[in-house]
Amino acid sequence: MANIIHRIAIKQPIEKVYQALTSINGLAHWWTTEVQGNTNVGEKIDFSFYKKTGDFMATMVMQVQESVTNACVRWHCVGGPDDWVGTDVTFELSEQDGQTILIFGHRNWREQNEHMAHCSMKWAVFMLSLRAYVETGTGKPSPDDVKIDNWN
Amino acid sequence: MANIIHRIAIKQPIEKVYQALTSINGLAHWWTTEVQGNTNVGEKIDFSFYKKTGDFMATMVMQVQESVTNACVRWHCVGGPDDWVGTDVTFELSEQDGQTILIFGHRNWREQNEHMAHCSMKWAVFMLSLRAYVETGTGKPSPDDVKIDNWN
């Protein structure tokens, strides 16, 4: 199993970061504008991605497995690209030096393929988007996300 | 062993990307301004990092193990933070859709610790810096790199 793990700090209270990870409105401001579902434990959230032209790309379906206020969130991927299904997305929050530290993980990939390398860069730019949203109110969710290669 | 692997595309000829990875001047424009050494196979390159205040942070010493024109570069880390020594940094280049595809790797970490998660985000912003340098002439090498957390 292989993992993408990124560490980033956000200069805002931990409550604001947790809110951005556990509300449909928050999620829509940094990952993709097209979010539907319910963020409670046991429920599912659908994240859909479209090109700027409007062409559909993919829907990632995440089942919320854990959500501990101001501490952690864990999703299990139950729909999306073949190599995403069965993986886990984790957010661990803590406080240090007056900042909120986020350890982001996209874990348990079956193999470290080229698509995983693409997703590693994409998650990094989405982490910058999350930070910008929480710190300034404006992120760069899809379809206005930073494009990093010929795939997206 | 754990690996950081990022995929990015650069809208410039592969020769320009290879040059940015294999000349002291090129490296100084996207990773750190403080680069010394020789980029030939078997030789060593010292990359030093300072805070904006001028305080010294670290020197990473890379031994060039492979350098195949317009195809790949591999460095072995022989000096730097404890968890970097013995790791490998790789750059694999190819062409697709009229773009240069770069698969960047920082491989063979002994454990996937929190510092590796920090470095994963830092390498992502340095890949964006490399792309900006090759595409526009201006990157964001240290000490003007994007800061991503309370460590750097």
TrEMBL record, chains A, B:
Source organism: Ephemeroptericola cinctiostellae
Transmembrane segments: none
InterPro entries, per the entry: ASHA1/2-like_C (IPR013538), START-like_dom_sf (IPR023393)
Residues of the Activator of Hsp90 ATPase homologue 1/2-like C-terminal domain: 13-135
CDD domains with a match to the protein in the record: SRPBCC_CalC_Aha1-like
Top-level taxon of the source organism: Bacteria
Entry's family note: Belongs to the AHA1 family.
Gene3D superfamilies the UniProt entry points to: 3.30.530.20
Lineage per the UniProt record: Bacteria, Pseudomonadati, Pseudomonadota, Betaproteobacteria, Burkholderiales
Protein name, as recorded: Activator of Hsp90 ATPase homologue 1/2-like C-terminal domain-containing protein
